[in-house]
Known about the structure:
This is DNA primase/polymerase bifunctional N-terminal domain-containing protein. There is one protein chain. The protein is mainly alpha-helical. The chain is built from five helices and four strands; from the N terminus they run E-E-E-E-H-H-H-H-H. The protein has two domains: 1-85, no CATH class; 88-173, no CATH class. A hairpin with a 6-residue loop joins strand 2 and strand 3.
Amino acid sequence: IKTGSGGLHIYFISDYDTNHVLTNGLGEFRASNYQCVGAGCTHPNGNKYIPLNNNLIQRLSKEEIEEILLPHIRNIGVDNSIPTGKDDSRSSLEYRKIIAELKKGTSRENIYQIMGAYSKWTTATQQYQVMTFEKAEAFVLEEKEKGKSESSEYLRNSRYKICRHKRHKFQHS
């Protein structure tokens, strides 16, 4: 599958169940507790995920996958697997997406629907979803307040400069 960002997704069916970050920036091998985007989906940039051929997804044994991966994973005492344990931190991708939607004026209900496309969001507890949304909302509100106070300060300074400038002109005319 050609991804919306121009990358490539290759799919297999296998009993191999270890996630890896591949060497040389080749990407990731997702095998356990991950979802992958498929053909027909839309990337956040608006481009579609497109099938490059109509071949069936191949079934490969654990041994066949290991043979394919061996040259592309570090195995010299370095653990480069992707952790699959519970993650209590907010996902920065989801957090940024919520912030972007809030700035566009999207309602909470619609944001929750949009966030359904994110695997961590859909598998997370309601508490995680609420916490992530509220932290993003607080950030946006704080940013708006900061912007208002900076704008007010700018206007005060500008008015002062303008008034002083006019007064100065007035005194000399």
